[in-house]
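Milestone 3.1: sequence recovery, worked example.
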């Protein structure tokens, strides 16, 4: 559905109805969803869900306490194993003097029975949420300026995407296609066109300032890589020179690389927040924004600032004595920064690949959480069933920057290419395994992160050419300077031409692919034979350098299954597809463990009139621990995701 659904931003009030949109796009429109202001409803739904979770925790705590007392009573002989209280006519908790969960309403407020209070509050909140949801579903609330429009086919959606929809500037634009309901950033849909412009420039200014001021801690990290020179300039650091060579080597080699990696780990978090504040409407676009901003940080801080500070710190004494010799000294000491990046490549290659494969931190966290914080079957299920997710904006810029460093230093210190290859190869193997068996990719960017990373690689060529121009100019080699300047200009022109050629292909769906797809479906065998005759077998390197011939759409499409069943949707799924989740969010189902004394059945009977609750699929064992069947397909929380 998402492939034929468009998101229009900044829609005028006159166009917030399906009839008006049909006048613009014709009868190709199948369905529309007009977004509404759900800020109040979202808070109420969150409050309702928190109350339900607290009630579930209190119920589970009460059941475990009762089960513990009964188990101890059996061991002491006070209770016979065959005895069981009638849970439908009595309160087992009071019969066995089980302490019921309580809490205070405020810091020094009245102490109340948690289960009774949560039940009463949940009943009121559920009714309030249901009434407000009905108003949103009937269009009786404030509408926002964003509309989702589903078309009859993907081709119709592509035509609408490339059509200028409104005669006023900044109206019904920007527009996006392929945005899945789970990837919508709903908070960004409430922005007008002028708010989006102001926020965009404000965020860009903030990120530019961050790049500049982030240089100070990054510069300190880079200076540590030449701690020996710094110790000779700063007397109170002289004790470092007396340390064993192994420790000094770790301080100069591993410590700066580890500190730099820890420092840069904060950047994607900040960039992702900035993207949401700038009004980016989908999580995929947020990742693309984060990828670009994070890459700028990586190049400036991890590479440029660290390289210059490392080279400058190695020649600080000479620069102080003769400031005019700074260019010559930097040219001499610039290759020395290679040692830092060799350590950086090896640290990233060995540590990141091993940690990615072993997943020791995730295993320890999982064991710790399931041992000490397994308050309910829900927590056990979530800890077991939810796979680790991966954010493209965190991963790609780090390794793209490693490739940029290798390309830049390939002319200054070619030895770095071998270490870069080794480090990147180890990381590739580790991530390849995790992508297949470990990670769950929640955000689908439709493959756009890869071509953007390839575009970022050209930064390495620019920096290498500029660096060679500077080194040749310092030596007074006019001829090589002119040659490298011509290469730089040619690289810029080629980059511009590449963007002009590929940007439309990355944004829109070519109509020729539809025709070729139909031809392949009708005459698959004949086309395959024609392709084989047209493309004679060639050597491996020839195929490598001509992917446009040997890896084009027709060649790759034959390797993809065609007998995939089309996704079908129920009427309710189609009706609520692009509603904000809180508009159609049902009350959660409480899941408590079953005890063999029937106490959980009593709690189910008491609570079921207020909210759905079940004790199936989980029980308490002899040690009063919660046990659940991991392979039961009918667990209360197990559900199939709808693929939009």
């Amino acid at each position: 559905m998402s492939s034929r659904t468009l998101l229009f931003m900044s829609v005028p009030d006159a166009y917030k109805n399906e009839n008006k949109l049909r006048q613009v796009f014709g009868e190709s429109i199948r369905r529309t969803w007009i977004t509404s202001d759900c800020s109040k409803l979202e808070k109420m739904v969150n409050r309702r869900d928190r109350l339900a979770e607290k009630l579930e925790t209190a119920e589970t705590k009460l059941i475990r306490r009762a089960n513990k007392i009964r188990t101890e009573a059996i061991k002491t002989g006070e209770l016979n194993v065959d005895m069981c209280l009638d849970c439908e006519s009595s309160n087992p908790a009071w019969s066995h003097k089980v302490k019921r969960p309580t809490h205070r309403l405020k810091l020094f407020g009245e102490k109340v029975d948690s289960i009774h209070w949560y039940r009463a509050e949940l009943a009121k909140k559920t009714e309030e949420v249901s009434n407000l949801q009905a108003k949103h579903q009937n269009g009786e609330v404030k509408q926002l300026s964003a509309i989702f429009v589903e078309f009859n086919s993907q081709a119709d959606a592509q035509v609408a995407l490339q059509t200028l929809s409104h005669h006023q500037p900044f109206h019904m634009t920007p527009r996006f296609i392929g945005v899945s309901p789970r990837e919508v950033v709903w908070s960004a849909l409430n922005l007008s066109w002028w708010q989006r412009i102001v926020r965009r420039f404000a965020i860009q200014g903030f990120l530019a300032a961050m790049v500049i001021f982030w240089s100070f801690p990054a510069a300190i990290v880079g200076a540590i890589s030449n701690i020996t020179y710094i110790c000779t300039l700063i007397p109170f650091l002289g004790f470092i020179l007396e340390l064993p060579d192994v420790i000094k080597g770790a301080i100069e080699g591993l410590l700066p690389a580890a500190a730099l990696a820890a420092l840069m780990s904060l950047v994607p978090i900040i960039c992702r927040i900035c993207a949401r504040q700038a009004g980016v409407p989908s999580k995929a676009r947020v990742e693309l924004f984060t990828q670009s901003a994070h890459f700028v940080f990586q190049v400036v801080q991890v590479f440029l600032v660290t390289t210059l500070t490392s080279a400058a710190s190695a020649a600080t004494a000479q620069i102080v004595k003769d400031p005019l010799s700074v260019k010559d000294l930097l040219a001499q000491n610039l290759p020395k920064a290679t040692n830092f990046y060799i350590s950086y490549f090896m640290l990233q290659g060995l540590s990141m690949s091993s940690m990615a494969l072993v997943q020791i931190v995730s295993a320890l966290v999982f064991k710790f959480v399931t041992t000490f914080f397994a308050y309910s079957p829900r927590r056990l299920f979530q800890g077991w069933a939810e796979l680790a997710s991966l954010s493209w904006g965190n991963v790609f810029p780090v390794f793209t920057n490693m490739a940029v460093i290798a390309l830049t230093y390939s002319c200054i210190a070619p030895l770095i290419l071998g270490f870069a290859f080794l480090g990147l190869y180890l990381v590739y193997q580790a991530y390849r395994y995790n992508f297949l068996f470990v990670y769950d990719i929640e955000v689908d960017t439709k493959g756009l992160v890869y071509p953007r990373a390839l575009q970022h690689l050209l930064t390495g060529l620019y920096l290498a050419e500029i660096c060679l121009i500077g080194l040749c100019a310092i030596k007074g080699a006019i001829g090589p300077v002119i040659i490298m300047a011509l290469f730089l200009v040619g690289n810029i022109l080629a980059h511009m031409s590449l963007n002009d050629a590929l940007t439309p292909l990355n944004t829109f769906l070519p109509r020729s692919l539809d025709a070729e797809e139909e031809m392949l479906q009708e005459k698959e065998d004949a086309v395959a034979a024609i392709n084989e005759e047209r493309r004679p077998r060639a050597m491996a390197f020839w195929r490598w350098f001509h992917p446009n011939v040997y890896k084009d759409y027709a060649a790759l499409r034959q390797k993809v299954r065609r007998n995939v069943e089309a996704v079908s949707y129920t009427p309710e799924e189609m009706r609520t597809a692009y509603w904000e989740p809180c508009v159609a969010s049902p009350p959660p189902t409480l899941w408590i463990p079953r005890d063999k004394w029937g106490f959980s059945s009593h709690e189910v009977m008491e609570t079921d009139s207020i909210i759905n609750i079940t004790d199936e699929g989980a029980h308490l064992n002899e040690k009063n621990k919660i046990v659940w069947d991991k392979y039961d397909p009918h667990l209360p929380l197990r559900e199939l995701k709808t693929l939009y």
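Strands lie at 5-8, 29-36, 102-104, 111-113, 143-151, 175-177, 590-591, 613-614, 618-620, 626-628. Residues 194-445 form one domain.
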